[in-house]
Amino acid sequence: MKLPAEYLIPQYQDRLYGAAFAVLQNGADAADAVQMTFIKYVDKDLEYKDEEHIRAWLFKTVINQAKDIRRSFFRSHKVSIEAAINLHFEQEEDQTLFETVCQLPEKDRTVLQLYYYEDYPIKEIARILGIRESNVKKRLSRARSKLKNVLQENWNDENE
User: Where is the RNA polymerase sigma factor 70 region 4 type domain (predicted)?
Assistant: First the structure.
């Protein structure tokens, strides 16, 4: 099974962008990672079991593309969250939470993005990232703890 790119692009590009942005924290680079992912999808002559298999392949590929871009010598500098014009939030709290997540280390951002924003189970995240399920659980636990601490500090600062 191979779905046409015309169907997949509008269906997944924003979510793939979010995953790439979690790794790169740069809007232009994240957009490049998404574009390269779709180009690879079109160029590869692969067969997939179902749409969920395609979705997993897209997320694994976009994360790998983002990591490649991050390692690239020519990588541009990070820009502020406001420059990431492709991300729109309906509520201010959602944007605040996303900005806080973006302050975390990449390993934490990536697992949070896949688990909470993309609703992947731990087993699938392990497969996408190429790590053990126990490592995913540890990363999620550490990321939640770090996120809680940062949010608590911000909340305490605002109430003083």
Answer: 99-147
